[in-house]
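Quick bug: Aminopeptidase N output formatted oddly.
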Amino acid sequence: MSLRAKLTLGTATAASLLLFAGTASAAEPGAPGIGDPYYPNAGNGGYDVSHYDIRLNYQPATDNLSGTTTILAKTTQDLSRFNLDFLLKVSSIRVNNRVAGFTQAGGELVVDPKQNLRKGSDVTIVVTYSDVPSNYDVDGYKSWKRTPDGALAIDEPDIAQWWFPNNNHPTDKATYDVSVAVPDGVEVISNGTFNGTAKQINGWTRWRWRSAKPQASYLAFLAIGQFEVRQSTAPNGQPVVNAYSLNLGENDLPAKASVERTPEITEFLEENFGPYPFEAQGGVVAPGIGFALENQTRSTYDPGFFRRGANTYVVAHEVAHQWYGDSVSVHRWRDIWLNEGFASYAEFLWSEHVGEGTAQENAQYLYDLYPADSDFWQVLPGDPGTADLFHGAVYDRGALTLHALRVAVGDDAFFTILKRWAQEKKYSDATIEEFIALAESVSGQQLDELFQTWLFTPGKPAAAPGAATFATRAAVAEPKSFQKIRETHELLDAHQH
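Here's what came back:
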């Protein structure tokens, strides 16, 4: 062996030793949850993921999903073992190229790397698996949706563990490469940029997608089946991929008349929120969802949103989430108002833009819609609890909260707050309290009473925000936009489990 080879071997040996903790007593198991009070078992402790490479095969006829996910992560403590969130049957795991032990129960995949992992070390985890995702539920709920021609991996707050092992919480974002092989003639849609297809010798085709910006696990999605896929370029030069199920029936053209306007709506929202934070745009319309979801770069819509014609309000809602929910994510699920209140207020802004009702008219009408004794006013958008995570109050009273802020601080400060929030928390996570602090800093006002009233106090506030605007009117007529906004929210409100 040459001296150079010896030195290389010695360096490699030293490097490998750095991956492992020196003493058993220093290493501890990673926590089975990240510490979210709403979902104690969501996420895991002890490591931070930087990238997922998900390489799968899917057979629509049997709903069998098989393949390998490679996870690149860095340890945040000395680890003796760690958890992944995953439901499907695993056949093997390797950690840093060594065969690892594992057990599975209740959606927790516990990995024993056989040697302790030192804090701050880079870790490569390779998980191989094969199973039928539709066989699994969590607390009686199945997030994986089998369809007549394929499947949909789309849901919130949980979907990832039905198709890839992961650290399932918005505070651990990562980049993604997703590649899925399916029988020829079947399409696969996912997040980010489309990296083409590759024909395989067995009569299958592999579809490849890449998400180059940090992405929460629940925002990673798959839509597999028979789709019309449309590719174009947005005015800002970004790729646009829209996909429409071939089973939309009479909702097909109204859906296209809505989703094809995604770049226009994105351009408008940039004026209010700042630069669009991601590398691609688009949308998917598929039956069997029952709601809309802001999958990163490519929101997904149930065709029911378009049953009465084009509906650009739901598109504005989901595109707004690209800033508020996707780029700036919740620190804990209790902070869900930062997602839904903001996206709902984007509908008010779009209504103003298209001349179908001002934000003030929409706010007043919405305030009047719910009587004081309605249960609507008993749900607290600032801390709704798991049972009401997607309650209408989180959306509608959440939007009223933002309008109250706008009225209190004025338009200049209000839109400065929205833009700074999106920029300063970009690709990160945040709390309601941090938003309040920013609003106070920008406006120079003390806003505790406003947020306490609208987010944290049960009961109907004494007056709608900006009510003095209509002091001489007996009632506010329904804005032209409101039928579409209510249709949107009726479907969104139904997404509760």
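Actually, after a second look the formatting is fine. The CA atoms of residues 319 and 407 lie 24 Å apart. Closing.
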